[in-house]
Every structure is written in C-alpha cells, then in structure tokens.
Amino acid sequence: MNTTSPTDALNRERDFSNLFNILSEQSKDDKTEEVNLHPQTMCPAFGGLRVITRIDGAQVCMATDKGCMYGLTFVTHFYAAKKSIVSPELMSQQLSSGTMITDIRHTLEEIAKDKSIRLIPVVSLCVAETAGIAEELLPKKVGNAEVVLVRIPAYLIKSHPEAKDIAIEALLKRFAQTPTSERKKSVAIIGEIFPLDAMMIGQVLERIGVESVITLPSQQLDDYKDAGSVECAVVLHPFYERVEEFFRARGVKVVGSNPVGVNATYKWIKDIGDALGLDETITEQVAQEEKTKIKAVIDAKKMKGTVIVAGYEGNEFPLVRLLLEAGVNVPYASTSIAHTELGEGDHKLLTMLGTELRYRKTLEEDRRAVLKYKPDLVVGTTSLDSYVKELGIPAVYYTNIISSRPIYFAQGASVMLDLIQSLVQKRDAFEKMKRFFEG
Fold it and tell me: What pTM was estimated for this model as a whole?
C-alpha cells in the first residue's frame, strides 16, 4: 500500500502554489498575457431559461443538482421572468439508486396540479445528462400541460446564445404544426429585439405586402404553433443555426442579416420581397425609401473616434457595421459564438473594412485588444468594462445599454449614433477621474 508522508504532501502543495503564482503573474503581464485563467461566461443554460420561462403558462422543471438550481433560480428571477423553478432533488442518492426518471415524473405531476400551467419544459443540465435522461420515458402531457425536454448541459454548449437556439428548436419541433397549406406572405422573425424595432419591422414589411408576422422567441405558445405554416423565416441573429435548419428542412425560405446600415437595410427588404414573391416595384420603392432615410441620418451624424465592441451573441457585429458607416474606427470586435454561415456576410464586410474579428473570444483577448488599440470607448461585457474603466476609458455593457435601445432602420440608427457620440465624448471625464483616484 502506497502512503504519502506529510513532508511529501507539503512539498506537492508548495509546488502547486508556485505554479499557480507563476501563471497568475503571467496573466497580469500585459505583454505576455497568453494564459486565459478567467471564467469566460455564465452557465449557458441561462440563455435557454431566458426563452422558455417567459412563455405564458410555462413552469420549468429543472433536472439538476442543488448548486445549479440555486444559481439559475437567481438569474431566472432577475433576468428572465420573475418565476421560480421547480426541481426534483437530484443528488448522489437519487442518481445512484436509479430513481431519476421516477422523481422527474412525480415532479411533473405536482406541477400539473396547477390547471393554469400549459407547458412544462424539462430542462436537463449537466448532472441529469451525464446520468442519462431517456426522453421516451417522460410523458408528452400531464394534465393540461404539454411536456417538452430541453437538453442544455454546459459541457456541450459553449455560450448562452446557443442554448437559446436549442430551446427554440425544441419548442418548434414539438409544436410547429405541419400545415395543410402554407400561409402566403407570412414571416417568422427570429431574434430577441427591442420592442420598437419589432414595431418598425412590422410596419416596413406591411408596406411591401407581408400579411402576417410572428416574432420568436415569443411569450405566446401559439406563436410556436403558427410558425409551422410561415412562408419565410427571417433570422436576425447569427447563432440561430438549429432554428434555421429546422425551417430549411421544412422547405421554408430563409433570409438572414438585419436592417442596420444603408446597404444592408436595402438588401434585407429586397431579399424578403424576393423570398415571398412580392410586387417588385413596391418592394424596390420601400427599400429605396428606407435606404435614403438611413443615409440621411448617418450623413448628419458622422463622427470620429476609436471604439472596440466585445459581446456574447454575434449581434454586436451589425453595430460595428453601423459605426463604420458613420466614420468611426472599429479596429477590433469579438463575440462568444462561433463563426457561422448566418454571420458570413458581416464577417466578409467587416474584415474587408479592416476590423479584426474574434470568435469564441476570451476576456484576455479583449483586454489585449484594449491595450493595443487604446480606444475612446469600449462597448463590452461586464468583466471587460470594469477593467477598461480602471484605465480611464469609457465603457458600457452591450446587453444593458445597446440591446435596450432600437438599432434598426433610420430611427434606430439615429438613437444609436447619438448614444455612441455621447459616450465617446466622456473620455476626458474618465481620464480626469482616473487621475483623481490615482492622486
């Protein structure tokens, strides 16, 4: 039998401590910072919960352990829908005894006693997925509630946007009705957008002849059902790859990109008109009108300055496109998602215009970019922003500041460019604060 002396244990602990200190010091060295030690994202399940907990009449049953239950309950209340999560207790005793499915079924029955519950998403996280959930052993319906399994373990999903994609795909596969006939001139808009942007999209599409618009993710379960009969799916954000494939597999035409900037807006309107076979003259007229409006806004709001954009979902790149059109220097932009086919248009354009793009980025890469390019403003993640402000550079959180405002069409361009201009002008104030606290 091998034994370890106290001296050996102490030496091993000291060696580990020395190694950790070396790596930590290396991560602090701005010139040689190549070790990525920081956690890069929250649990990706957050993205899926954000979608499904907001559905009216939905009550999540989360198959997980107590630790994940605690953390995700917090973010669900704070960010998503102010709803609690119900969960069977999946700890070592339940997993080793093989009662997990029975415990989940019992929890579903308890939830379904509330007659107002129409949907019970069973969210399967790392612990449950490792133990193995057999979907065929779960009921499809309990009482008045439909049951849907949503598999979003963190060890398979790299970012929370991709969990949104998985959640919406699961709902569509279950509820999108196979139509007896396709609803002509109908569109499904895919992407979480500011309410005013949704209204503007509806108004513009109505002008070119679109008769029905559904926006997903939606609070209404019926919208997921009606999505099965649309003629065209318009995917605004580049991470909805599974949703795009779902519609393509059903023979639904898919249009990507979004109405941000001059040429992109014109092309976006034209592509939707072509996909639906709408009147070409009317579509061209509306597309030219919107293009002219946005060009007038951008021409009136030209600005100088260097901005870095770093976010999570890939929908940061249209902002970069708008800023470049307005004359801003954007040398670097990053996102947590992978390079997707849906984002290929922005990738080609932005790289051609000289912006360095990073996919699956790390905090350390973003920090190195800040030191390299010395921007006047950073639109980034919370962890990056705190670092940037310590350097005396203005910084704002993309999700709370940019996503909470319109960005589409001329009205969105006007709001966004005014915001960026006001933030860039705060550079002197931030440097003054930095000098004050250093003194």
Answer: 0.86
